[in-house]
Amino acid sequence: MSTVPTLSGITSKVVDTPRLKMHALFSGPENGTPVLFLHGNASSATYWEEIMLKLPAGFRGIAPDLRGYGDTEDKLIDATRGMGDWVDDLVGFMDALKIEKTHVIGHSMGGAVVFGLVGAIGGRILSGTVVNPGSMYGFGGTKDVNGTPCYDDFAGSGGGVVNPDFPKLMAAGDRSTDNPQASPRVVMNGFYFKPPFVPAREEDLLSSLLTEKVGEQKYPGDFVPSGNWPNVAPGKFGPINALSPKYVGDSVEKFVGASSKPFILWIRGDSDLIVSDNSFFDFGTLGKLGYVPGWPGEEIYPPQPMVGQTRNILEQYKAKGGGYEEVVIADTGHTPYVEKPEEFMAAFGKVLK
Known about the structure:
It contains 12 helices and 12 strands. The protein is of the alpha/beta class.
């Protein structure tokens, strides 16, 4: 079933849903309280296995490969719907497995999908945990805690902002460290985790990264030229366009205004270079540091305050009757549940209880 080897205690199967065939990993008793695990970009369900095996007794871990990733059926992502395809896929997945209510936990891109699920089906979510989540205002192209676009065409976000060598090497199944900027292994070890940390399952996690579906309409997606710096704007296909602020729509309003508001636990690493207020994957940061020429300056295109945006949205959620807690795990990068699983479970376990 799974093209990546699984740990003992994890089972793998394909679930036929109304929208597509979804591959998923499972742990714990079949009649246990469900915990739905959502992976981030350039990864798959594999990343969650260790935490799935650490769930308290009586819980059932369920980790699907999202559309565009892993061993799930290869269908295109309509980026113009923002999180829509992933949210609808997951609702269909829950229905197929007859899951009425579930805890949900999402990492990075998967964290943004958790927010989308709360906005869509809050009454079916027992709790929502987001780990180094992408901002609900989108990735790239916005400039303050309210998500104000830098330009009206959302230049600097979407499929055109990805280093083109990275998906090329992914498609080739490259496992080397030959390209210091774009080798998947170098990107994973340099940015997913805080160096010098290297995970025990480095090879399996790299294999998981390499399962993402690559192509012009897949990862990273298409783009259009822009007269605004850095001269690329979002296209209409693939995950990175789906994460563009261009297609956020009313998802923030739906989350903040959800009629049923599950408790949200927000866990993040203190040394994250991917989702932060000075992200190395954001053109505002890269321009300010002089890595990308022609930066129009702080006024027009500052670094996106990704952490500040998430805190702002969660404060609005709280003001409307929701609850949340922010937990920062020291000395970890973008993936604290891999870097410090015991410390991570201490926080996550409380929410499950």
